[in-house]
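Write out this protein's structure.
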Amino acid sequence: MSDGDLTSFGASLEAMFRKMGMSDPMALSRLASGWDELAGTPWSGRSKPLFIQGKTLVVEAESPSMVAFLRYGSADLVAALGRALGEGVIDRIEVRAPPNH
């Protein structure tokens, strides 16, 4: 397989992810692997990124009581992620309670 084939495959994957609503296919991977450092306080240890839909990052809080607390700090998280991932990759945070609560 030549480098040209890999580029075509990468472009195809990117196009597929964009059709699924992901604005940057690698953003979720970066978020998942470095969440605690990227998100910082109060998100670190209290939440985890689930998925990106369009430019909205959906985050799961560690407990139902943390949902409102984390929502309050969502503007700061958007700003921090803009610095880390690039402006406009994430423009909104949706915080969800963990399942079965």
